[in-house]
Each structure stands twice: as structure tokens, then as C-alpha cells.
Amino acid sequence: MAIEIVQPSVELSKIALSETHGEDSPYFAGWKAYDENPYHELHNPSGVIQMGLAENQVSFDLLEEYLESNLESSNWGQKVSGFRENALFQDYHGLVSFRKAMASFMEEVRGGKAKFNPERIVLTAGATAANELLTFILANPGDALLVPTPYYPGFDRDLRWRTGVQIVPIHCESSNNFQITPEALEAAYDHARSMNIKVKGVLITNPSNPLGATIQRKVLEEILDFVTRKNIHLVSDEIYSGSAFYADEFVSIAEVLESRNYKDSERCHIVYSLSKDLGLPGFRVGTVYSYNDQVVTTARRMSSFTLISSQTQFLLASMLSDKEFTRKYIKINRERLKKRYEMIINGLKKAGIECLKGNAGLFCWMNLSPYLEEPTIESELAIWKTIMHEVRLNISPGSSCHCSEPGWFRVCFANMSEETLEVALSRIHEFITTRKQ
Amino acid sequence: MTQTGPRRLHNSGMEDESRDQSPSSSTGMRLIVPLQGIVQGRGGLILGSVIPCAMFYFLQFYLKRRRSPPNPPEHHTSSPPSPAPSSSNLTELSRSASRSNLLMSRGSIGRPHVSSRVHCIAKSNDSPYYIGLDKVSADPYDSFSNPNGVIQLGLAENRLTLDLIENWIAEKLNDSILGGGLSVSGIATYQPFDGMPELKVAMAGFMSQVMGRTVTFDPSQIVLTSGATSAIEILCFALADQGNAFLIPAPYYPGFDRDMKWRTGVELIPVHCRSSDNFTLSIPVLDQAFNQARKRGQKVKGILLSNPSNPVGNLMTRETLFSLLDFAREKNIHIISDELFAASTFGDEEFVSMAEIIDSEDTDKDRVHIVYGLSKDLALPGFRVGVIYSYNENVLTVSRKMTRFSPVSAPTQRIVTSMLSDTTFIKDFTERNRERLRAMYDLFVEGLEELGIGCTKSSGGLYCWCDMSGLIRPYNEKGELDLWDKLLNVAKINITPGSSCHCIEPGWFRCCFTTLDEKDIPVVIERIRSVVETCKSPS
């Protein structure tokens, strides 16, 4: 008699089965709640307001206005000849005009305080891809990158999932406004070494996500000295650089390198994107800017997996090189973000909630630790769940950002209208008042 | 040498197969202990410790010298230093690597290390496939402005029907990008990474139209990504661990060596096809390759097929496809069917998609995944639109998550949705495309025949697979590369040698004919003729 053999189902990879994609963390759970019951002014005024997505919608009108009045140049004005090259263009060097435009835009954002060479720009389909690409290039599976906490929850996936690289946190504390200290850097490095893990670099986000604050020049110098001493890399993710409320408060690592005459700059790499500053996340435009020739060459080839559509490059090249437009846009964008920030800070203050003093980004770092039952992550998640289900606001708990102190939350304010923000603030006000009773 | 220390944190749960060459200091320790043992017998404690320690320090000193480098400091000006002209050859890179063996100058800390992948990537651009492409970029032929330039026959790019697309664009562009009234805010915000639902629907419709025959494609099984290159890589990440292997009929597309292996660490095992079989896949040979892999201890995770095949241009028969499915079932492995050239067929045979085969099966669909894209069939490689079509929910879920690293740009999605939804245009386009492919193929093959060069009878793709084995001397890879070199540098024609495609028989070349105008064909034939004559003349 034949024995029935149950065919084992066909296997997937370890990567496919691992949890490192991180989509089971609370950060993403909140999104599900929003998706199921999204707020709408008219149709669903009691829905969940999305304050967990760092998207910049405050300056859309400027973009629309530009694109509409510049249609001719933005879509193949010389239709016939322009299109053909465009459709076939899949060179991983990227459209020269677009690279020049990106370099020019990056300089504008830094107020001309740093120069960028278009030959060092590598294009990727978004900063997510840029960060992963750099990790593949700088580190082997099992190696580590040091990342200051609290950090963007997406890094757990972007830097670790397919690369096999680890993140070792650099612990920062509220006592000094979560700034990175040389002691914390050394401690993180030693911790990694004690576990026999090779540290390949430090990855900072400047301005910081989720803190919403720029890193001070002095701290950048210290970090640069540290990575030089340890002979490791420094990746500076500057995707929020155009979202600093005061242009002179943001210092790019490029400026620090320039002041040092680019000595030892081969270990530095900058990540940038149009998703935050220009509010075009759907276009998927990211870049790796490296001072290291070998990294540039390798990144370029590796970008084959994540090229930016030639059509998009063409579309944006003229807009980004239009200095008059970009200057105006950047200035107005900064002002509007600042205004939003002040609105939310004051609103929260009235409710008795303090925030970290911020000066950049699309979010604020809110302190609810006085309202926790106990200073633990469990209490933080408890209050987060309440806020999600009862107050119906999706905000990001500090624990998903690996913050070492419980009770902090990231609250985004740029992805909604002012009216919606008012609604959100009033809900918070009500929640806190009830809680105090 | 692997790293020591089992106390490493395993967040990702991955096996660590570090190919890092720089030894840790513990290697030194490994030498001391046995040495101590040896010396201790006679010299006692002092010699037993001093000599090994001295050797240890010398070893460290020697190893430090060989560790990678600082480059000699560049001349810095106040503007950011320009990179060295990007080199596609290994030679430049190895020059700097050898400089690294010099002692570091005192005072400079040294260059930070990069991953071992970097060196692997640097090497791959050594292949004739890439060298040829670079030569064309540097000196591209143009019948008017550069008639002595290098003629491109090494890139499977379809220029024969761009005019049709241009016309469509000219008529419909504004509406499609801005949605006739919808502002840019509709596409500027974050979109689902695996593609907008409208595009999935349009793509499913397009695929059903051009490759479906009897089956339709389901939009919910579609994952969109920035190019078929990315689609294949994602599937490798999802289906195989580092070190696992895929069986792949050879000759195959040279790009797979890079696309599938670089970051995933997956291996490719060629399954050689022969001219006696018209380079079609033989199941017994496949079986043999699988068994040999198993004996070597290599875990085979799947088969990667190209159908229509690249570089040969064969279409797989229904029988072969059924046999492959049986084989995969028996071995419990995956099938990735790369059907990128599905609509670029021009022969009498009809294309049969794996989707059609699987449609008649009730169970066991979990192992089949199809890769598609618009780079060949719609001549839009610049737009970066690739498709993963899978019957496996888990693979779809993982692929969706991975597309965050390689999504399709939103304005491009919009324009492509419009184009694909215009079924009248698509029907007309695919028909005219086939006609023009056929015409060009016939002309080109005829021209080659005049020179006594035959091609396999192919029915698909943008190229033909030519037999120049009679012209190479000696009859081996070196002879083949000599001919390739002559054709590239003397005749200034870029074609792809079979060795880059891992063809086991020397003398075969892939010639893409869709980058040409009709009037260029005589030019190409003449240039080849000049080299052929020199090969035939008694030396």
C-alpha cells in the first residue's frame, strides 16, 4: 500500500521569514488604525487623524503653480526628439541636467554655504533606497552601524533587513536635549566591540527625526573627530535640511568638511531626497552624495536596482535648476513650517504638554512622561493605545524610535490643513483635561 | 577567514558568511598556543613565551602592512574634489589596490573599509558585455554625424517603434500626467510602494492582452517595481538565502551574473544547452545539473527561465513548460519565468506563458513566479517599470514590502496607466512592433547569410544568435574573444560574445538588430565582411 507523502510547501528565504521588516511594530499598527477609520473634515469628522506620517503638504500650492505655468518645459517641450532619448535612457549615471539640478538645489537649501559637485551625485528611487544602498556598500552582514536614539523607526528595516547589518544605538538623553555626546559615541562603540561586532560607521539624521532639531556645529565636529579616530564612515541623512525653520540654524556636514579643506572626507556620505523638503514623496527621488570615489562608482552601479524614472528626472530638472523658484520655495516653506510648529507647540502648551525645543522638520517631540502611570514602556504603550482609540490620533510612540526614556511621542503637523490641526489640538486638550480630573 | 566569536548579536537571524579578508587579532592568538606547546618542551617558559610573542608581533606588523590603504592624499582645493573618471575596468581599481600595500604614511589614519561586495562589483565590469557598451557610449555611431562610430548591436533596446509611442504621447500627454483637471497633488504624495491600484489593473489588462491567450492576469497578484532588474533581485531575496543557487539554462543574459548575485549572495548554476538541440533546454541535463549541485552540497532553490530566451530567442514549448513544472514539483523548488520579451515575437510559433501552464493546474501554484516589464515590449526602459507576478501569497507579501527600496515613480505610473489602458493603441502597437521586428530580423539574417554566417532559427527577442564558430581560431574562448575584439576595435561593431553569456560552445554571438535603421544594415554587413575576410584569408 502506498504511503501518502505530504509534499512540504516550497520554502522561502530567511529574509522573507524574518521579522526585520519591522512592520509589526506599534509604529505601523497605528497606521492600520488610521487606514480603517481615516479622518475627513466632512465625511468622517470623528475619524483617526493621521499624525504619524512625516509628509509635507504645506507648500503644495507653490509646486502646482510652478508646474502649471511651466508646462511646456516640464514635459518634453521639444516633444519628438526629447522623448526618444528619454524613453531609452537607463544610464545609471543619471541625466546630467538632473544631477546638476540636484546639486544646485542642495546648495540652495544650504544657502550656498556648501558646494556640491554633480559628479558625486548618485540617484536612487528615494532616500530609503539610498540608505540601504550605502549600508550594502559600507558594511558586511553582521557588521554594525551606530545610530543615535531616538531614531526613525524605518531604519530598523531599511538598514538591517536585506543587508544583514546591525544597528547599535548611541544612547541620548533628555537631560541635554537628546544631543549626541562623545561619551555616548564611545560607549556605543565599546558596547559593539564587547560583543565582537565590527562597527563600520555612524549614521546621523540632521535635522533629526524624530526630535525635529538640528545638530549643532560643535557636535558635528565631535562626531567627525570620532569617526576619524576610529577610521569608520559617517552617513549624514539630511533629508530634512530644507525644513529647518531658520536657514542659518542648520549646519550640513558638507560645511564642516569644507572648513577642514576636505581632509579625510572620504569617510563621509550624505543622503538627500525630495520627499520632505519638496513634498514630492510619490516621485521617488533620492540621492547618495559621497566624497569617496570608490563609493560613488559602486553606488552608481548598484543604483541599477533603484533607478529614477527618466521621465521624472526630465520633469524635475528644469524646476530644480530654476534658482528663482527654488529660492522662493525654500524660503516660504521654512516660514510656513515654522508657523505650523508654533501653532502646535502653543496648542500643546495650553493643554499643559511640553515639547522638546525644536527648530526643524515636519514634527515635534512631545513629552507625555508626566502622564504615564509608571515610567515604563508598557505605560507608554498604554497611553498610546488610548490616544489612538479614544482620542483618535495616530502618533508615534518613542519606544518604536528606541528612545531610552519612556513617554515621548513624535507628532507630525505638516501633512494636514490648519483646520485639521486645530481639531487635533482640541481633542488633545480635552483628553488631558479629562485625565487630570 | 570568518570572524571569531559566537557571542555576536543576531538581530536578523541571518547566517553570517562574511567574505571579509582582514583577519582579526585573534588569528594571532590561534598561532601562539600551539607554538607555545612546541617550544615549551625544550626552551621552557621563556622561550615558550618570548618566541611566540615575538612572532605574534611580527605577524601583526606584517598583517597591518597588507591591510587596505590610504590613497596618497589628493590635492584639495576649496571645492569638493572631483571623482576620478569613473572606470569600468578592473585595471584601474587594482592599481589603487596595489598602492594600498605600501606602508601608511605616519600621521594619516587610513581609509575606512568598505564591504567585500564592493570588490566583487568592481570586477564584474570587466566582462566584454560591459566593455562593449562603454565603447559605444564613448563613440556612438550616427549615420550623419558620426559615420565612423561604433555601431551598437550589443544592447537589447527596441527603437523600431518609438515613433508610435511618440505619436501617442504627443496626442495625450497633458491629460495623462495631470489627469485632465487633477492637480499634481494626486501623485505627489506617498503612494503604495508596490504600485497604484490603477496601474496594476492596467498592467494586468496589458499582460492579458499580449501574453495571455487563454488566461487573464489578476491585478491582485501584481507587484510593481522599478524595472525587471529589481524584480528579479527581489525574488532572489525572497526565495533564496545567501549561498543558495538557481539553475539557469545557458547561454543566458550576462546581466544576471550581476543582478542576481551581487547583493543577494545567490549562486547561478548554468545548465548548458547545445547547438545540436538548437539551444533548447533538455530536462535530463537539468536533472544532472541538479544532482551535481546536490553532491557538491549546494542547495538549489529554483530555476530561472527566460522565455522568450535571451540571448538565443527561442520560445519554450508547452511540453517543455509542463516538464519543467513537473521537475520543480519533484524537487520542491521554485520557478521564476522571466517573460520580458513576451510581446516581442516575430516568428510562426506562438508564445506560451507560464501563466497558461499553471492555469490548468489546481494545486501547487505556490512555486511559480513571473517577471515582466515595459523595457522591451513597450520600448520604455528609461521609465523603470517592472512586474513581479506570483501565485504565492507569502512571496507577494514580502515582495510588496521590498518594493519600498525600488518603487515606480508616480508621474510615470500615471502616464503608463493611461498608455496601457488604451487597448486600441496597444493592439495596434504590438502588431506593428511584431511586423517591424520580423522585417528587421529577416533583413539582418539575410545579410549575415551572405557572409556565410548562420543563425539559430529564433522567434522572439530583439536579437539573433549567430554562429561565427567557423571564423574563430583557435576553436575556443580565446579565439572567440579575439574575434570579438577585432569586431569591436577594428570593424567597430559591438556584439556580445557567447562566453559572456556562459555558452559552452565557442564562436556564438548575440547581435541585437533593433537599434538599427534599415539603411544601417548594409553598413553593418560590410564592416563584418571586412573582418570575416581577414579571418578566412590564409595566415
UniProtKB/TrEMBL annotation, chain A:
Residue stretches spanning the membrane: none
InterPro entries hit by this protein: Aminotransferase_I/II_large, Ethylene_sulfur-biosynth, NHTrfase_class1_PyrdxlP-BS, PyrdxlP-dep_Trfase, PyrdxlP-dep_Trfase_major, PyrdxlP-dep_Trfase_small
CDD domains registered for this protein in UniProt: AAT_like
Gene Ontology molecular-function annotations: 1-aminocyclopropane-1-carboxylate synthase activity; pyridoxal phosphate binding; transaminase activity
Keyword line: Pyridoxal phosphate
Family annotation (SUPFAM superfamilies): PLP-dependent transferases
Residue ranges annotated for the Aminotransferase class I/classII large domain, each copy included: 49-428
PANTHER family listed in its UniProt record: AMINOTRANSFERASE CLASS I_CLASSII DOMAIN-CONTAINING PROTEIN (PTHR43795:SF39), BIFUNCTIONAL ASPARTATE AMINOTRANSFERASE AND GLUTAMATE/ASPARTATE-PREPHENATE AMINOTRANSFERASE-RELATED (PTHR43795)
Family: Belongs to the class-I pyridoxal-phosphate-dependent aminotransferase family.
Name this polypeptide is given: Aminotransferase class I/classII large domain-containing protein
Organism per entry: Deinandra increscens subsp. villosa
Automatic annotation (TrEMBL), chain B:
Family matches, as SUPFAM superfamilies: PLP-dependent transferases
Family the entry assigns: Belongs to the class-I pyridoxal-phosphate-dependent aminotransferase family.
UniProt cross-references to Pfam families, sorted A to Z: Aminotran_1_2
Protein name as annotated: Aminotransferase class I/classII large domain-containing protein
Top-rank lineage group of the source organism: Eukaryota
Gene Ontology MF annotations: 1-aminocyclopropane-1-carboxylate synthase activity; aromatic-amino-acid transaminase activity; L-aspartate:2-oxoglutarate aminotransferase activity; pyridoxal phosphate binding
CDD domains (alphabetical): AAT_like
UniProt keyword annotations, A-Z: Membrane, Pyridoxal phosphate, Transmembrane, Transmembrane helix
PANTHER family reported for this sequence: AMINOTRANSFERASE ACS12-RELATED, BIFUNCTIONAL ASPARTATE AMINOTRANSFERASE AND GLUTAMATE/ASPARTATE-PREPHENATE AMINOTRANSFERASE-RELATED
Region span, Disordered: 1-29, 68-97
Domain (Aminotransferase class I/classII large): residue spans on this chain: 151-528
InterPro entries: Aminotransferase_I/II_large (IPR004839), Ethylene_sulfur-biosynth (IPR050478), NHTrfase_class1_PyrdxlP-BS (IPR004838), PyrdxlP-dep_Trfase (IPR015424), PyrdxlP-dep_Trfase_major (IPR015421), PyrdxlP-dep_Trfase_small (IPR015422)
